[in-house]
Amino acid sequence: MLMDVMDIQKILPHRYPFLLVDRVTDIEPKESIVAYKNVSISEPVFQGHFPGHPIYPGVMILEGMAQAGGILAFKSMDGVSEEEIANKVVYFMSIDKAKFRAPVKPGDRLEYKISVIKNKGAIWMLKGEAYVDGKLTSEAELKAMIVDK
Predict the structure, then answer these.
(1) What is the DSSP letter of 79?
(2) Terminal-to-terminal C-alpha distance of the chain
(3) In whole angstroms, what is the distance from residue 32 CA to residue 35 CA?
(4) What is the pLDDT along the chain (149 residues), one digit of tens a residue?
(5) Active site residue: 22, 29, 32, 49, which one?
(6) How far apart are CA 110 and CA 133, in angstroms?
(7) E strands along the chain, which residues?
(8) CB count, 10 Å around CB of 73?
(9) Helix (H, G, I), strand (E, B) or coil at 62
(10) List of residues 6+ apart from 24 with CB closer than 8 A
(11) Are 105 and 55 contacting, i.e. CB atoms less than 8 angstroms apart?
(12) What's this model's pTM, rounded to 2 decimal places?
């Protein structure tokens, strides 16, 4: 299931400059999602991280993983309307085993691969990986909960 940024904005409450998923290229409800973000030098974060040596912050990569995971969680909810989804939000509960293996730079296409470790009700345990050109740059285990706004 392909989703563009307009479809994504129907699910996630995030907006520029904090919407960190540009497109979903594959989704298997209750199993996995593949999404990406195009990292551009024009992003505000590069004004300070770091002048003359732009590196996309690891915390932003983790947030992008979480946003992709949120899309997966919402798309995995059976029989829930767009209106009901609009009244819910995903909250981080924990980030574990985070590792950063290579820097992400302007011009990179950051691909998020998120898979479900476990789901019980509103709680989701996810394995997140981020790649650039097929090379693993970051990984983490994320726990999140879907709650009413």
Answers:
(1) T
(2) 27
(3) 10
(4) 799 999 999 999 999 999 999 999 999 999 999 999 999 999 999 999 999 999 999 999 999 999 999 999 999 998 888 888 888 999 999 999 999 999 999 999 999 999 999 999 999 999 999 999 999 999 999 999 999 98
(5) 49
(6) 8
(7) 23-28, 32-38, 88-100, 109-120, 123-132, 135-148
(8) 25
(9) helix
(10) 1, 2, 3, 7, 8, 33, 34, 35, 68, 71
(11) yes
(12) 0.96
DSSP 8-state code for residue 116 = E
Residue in this structure with the two tokens 């999602």, named with its chain if needed: 33
Q: Please indicate whether residue 53 is annotated as part of the active site.
A: no
Contacts of 63 (CB under 8 A, 6+ apart): 18, 20
- Can you point out the beta strands (E) in 73-121? 88-100, 109-120
User: Quick one: how far is CA 58 from the chain centroid?
Assistant: 12
In the DSSP assignment, the letter for residue 46 is G
* Both structure tokens of 119: 């789901």
Identify whether the C-beta of residue 70 lies closer than 8 Å to the C-beta of residue 11. Answer: yes
| Tokens describing residue 143 | 């726990």
3-class secondary structure, 70: helix
